[in-house]
Amino acid sequence: MHKKNNQIIIVLLFICSLALISNAFVSFSNAQSNGDLYIVNSEFKILEFGEANGEILNTSSIVFPLTSETWNLTNIELNITDIQSKREIKDIETDIFGGKDLYKGRKGLAVQINIIDPTEIYGVHIYGDENAPFTTVNVSVQINGYNSVLNRPNETIYGSTQINISSVIKWYIQNFSTPIFLNPGNYFLVMNGTEMLPQDNGGYDWLSTNNPTNPNLYISEYIGEWTNGSTGEPFLYKLDQKVVGQFYPEEINMTADIDGIYYPISDGVAPGTGFLNESIHLAPSEHNITIPIIFNKSINLIFNLTYAFNLETQLTCDGSGLINQDSPNVWTLTPVIERFYDYQFFQFFYPKNWDNLTVYQKLGEIWENKTSEILFDENTIIIPNNTLNGGIEWKITANSPNIGFNLNLPILEWEPGSELQFTVNMPFVDGNLTFNLINPIGFGLEEPIIKEVVSEETFFTYLIPSNSIEGTYTAKIFWNNATDIGFQSQEFQLTIPPVPFTVEPIWIVISVILVIAIGTASIFSYQKIKKYRIRRIEESRKLHDKYMDVLNLDYIIVSDKKSGLNVYQQKFTEKQIDATMISGFLQAIHSFGIELIKIEDTSQTIKLEYKDSVIIMTEFVTLRLILIMKEHPSSVFLYSLEDLTYDLYKYYGKLIEEFTGDIKPFKSIEKFLKHHLNTTITYPIILTKIDKLEKVKLSQTERAFVNKAISFMKSNNSEHFFLNSLLPGKECSPKDIEIIINLIEKNVFQIF
Question: Cβ distance 38 to 323 under 8 Å?
């Protein structure tokens, strides 16, 4: 009988619950709008264009200083004149091997000179020394004609100078009093002592090479007459020369090396002139643009040039939007615009639904309206070059309409302690929604609730404090993205229920008994539910930490502990990191004996911060594991590194001890990272085909993540995405991780 009564009570409670639920959705009303103010902060991009003009004289390359590394070179125009050789010391043969003596038994030594272009010779350098001074003759160094039949000097002398040499073996310069002009052809450089007498015991050494740069050069000796020329070991010499004349760029294959791409320079109308006009895209990595000029002549050329560089960069400026329901929204941008080049202008692409744009420049303490001087073209404004004089502070204002959306608050009467629930329907999935609750005396929440719009419908809940006052409350919703804003509000009543009427004592006794019975059962059930919830929360938190730790990974390096050499490295970010530098840095830290935090007797770990990264280094015997992360990892992640380092040493320890530089055997380390750290979640993810997706049953939150993935791929014109593009960083909840895992298990998200 008692059991039957309990069943009746449960049925009655269930019927009452159904009645309450049905009453909650009987009265449905749309949101009401009234005037309000709300400020949205945003950032805007303004394109900055500049033209740099100038002249460079007597140069062989182009070095142009930039005011910032953010400038990109988009067009280059060069006009080149006076392309000519400059005086230079040209090495002919310089590799020392042996040599020959000039003495009374060998009165002359000669080596071939090959002239390709008309050239002026100012002097020559020879390598040798003096054994003993000559007493009967002044030995000369001269340039003779070439006997093309016997490959030896002929009697024609183009220029001569008395030899300059001493007892120290080295290079000696032999200067001619006037430059010797030589047309293209072959000649001989001669050390001439042919007039010495038999009693003269003087002697000079002229060194030669057996590894010639020019193996076809002939040499000859004077023994009563000049011997027929032979090749193999030419004498050492350099020419102090200048090639005569001016060159057409195409004649010498003249090109400009712009970031590894060679642009040919075209011929001008006269010799020694040329030009280049190219549209390019060069993003310099430093404050200078350096453009080497390349040509196929083995001489040093110089030239004059005038240049015109077109440059562009992107300026980031702060902006804000002011929401006013009773009048158009007001946007204000405050760029700082500076002049860096003689010709410069700025371009801002504003949203299509903005109007009434006004541009101001701050001159002294006054904001002067410059709108009449600004160029407007569809959704673009251009601040031209002639307006940039004066102040660098600018202001752009514009109006935009209020973006409409639906605020759905079905129940308009609530009590303190109840959970306020409502939804917001947006016409598109974008931006953020901000909820604020205003009480009857005009005060709002200390921290408004902000949610990202990830689906067409966004659900809000708010626990009304039990000590709230009675009266009319206003739920206010503000929506914004980077360029649009909107506002809606809904009033509702908060009523405090009346004091319950008195009842008969018998009913009080019965109620007490029921309360005790129900309370006892509730406490027992609560304890079981609490334990289950604690366990579920802990499991969910561990899973969340596990995934977030992996998504925080930037780099993994495995290296030899003894030498510090890397045997394996894997990158999980687009950020450029010098792995070798990091590894060497940690090797140095270890060498200087920083006290390490012990984890096991056979392993040790160090954790430090470097720039915007956290570096974890774990060592096990001869193996060192280095992880570079965005955030500090959880303790569970640190413990998992022990198993990973143990397995890596087990399978690769001997290879590391015997490491010779070949890293191929270590490529399979990736499978251990997948097993221990689940690094596959950082790999690209594709979405299952649409026809299969329609057959999969998805919850509202799961479908929101799918829509977010589709939106990301469309906006990036990509066929894949990454998990960190869906998860909201530090605000990511364990529930978000569980949803991602469900979508992977349902094969909706496919890792490849």
Answer: yes
